[in-house]
Amino acid sequence: MKRSIDIRQLVPDDAPAYKALRLEASRDGWFGISQDAERAYTVALLRETLNQNDGSYLLGAFVNQRMIAMVGFGRGMSPSTGTLFGLFVQPEWRRSGIGQQLCKALIEREAGTDIKLEVRPDNLSAIKLYESLGFLIVDRGPESLTLIRQSYS
Q1: Model confidence over 18-59: pLDDT tens digits?
Q2: Which residues contact 115 (CB under 8 A, 6 or more apart)?
Q3: How sure is the predictor about 1, in pLDDT bands with cuts at 50, 70 and 90?
Q4: Is the pLDDT confidence value at 121 over 70?
Q5: Distance (Å, rounded) from C-alpha 50 to C-alpha 98?
Q6: How far is CA 117 from the centre of its chain?
Q7: Does residue 35 contact residue 25 with C-beta atoms inside 8 Å?
Q8: Are 88 and 70 in contact (CB under 8 A)?
């Protein structure tokens, strides 16, 4: 039986679930953030973050109202540019297509936007995912690769 996945923008009421997923991600080495540093982010602070209206947002993937994955978008200096960041999928949901669904939802939402991202060069599964979505490697550094998906509109 296939479970229904709900992908939607996070709202301030999602702050407790967002905090829990961020804490889990920090155990997984997500962006090199330590669990101690992650614990410093309070639910109240995350609620404020989710309430900002600056063109940036987070999408969450939910199964039975439980957040299992997330990805963020930060608006660039120009309204036609932005950055995809913070993709995290709970380990038991990896390789299930959730990360791809989240990224596709973000790309569709940002039609007409050139989207940039950075990824560790050793994260081959993420690189493969991003390339399958039309991202191209434009810079190779020792610590990260930069990929861009141009909108062509």
Answers
A1: 999 998 888 876 667 778 888 888 999 999 999 988 889 999
A2: 73, 81, 82, 83, 84, 106, 107, 135, 148, 149, 151
A3: very low
A4: yes
A5: 21
A6: 10
A7: no
A8: yes
pLDDT computed for residue 2 by the predictor: 58
- Give me 43's structure tokens: 């639910």
The residue to which tokens 């063109």 are assigned: 55
Closest CA to 78 of 130, 135, 116: 116
* Per-residue tokens: 40: 């410093």
The predicted model scores a pTM of 0.90
For the record, the structure tokens of 137 come out as: 């490697």
Q: Residue written as tokens 């810079």?
A: 139
Cβ(32)–Cβ(54) below 8 Å = no
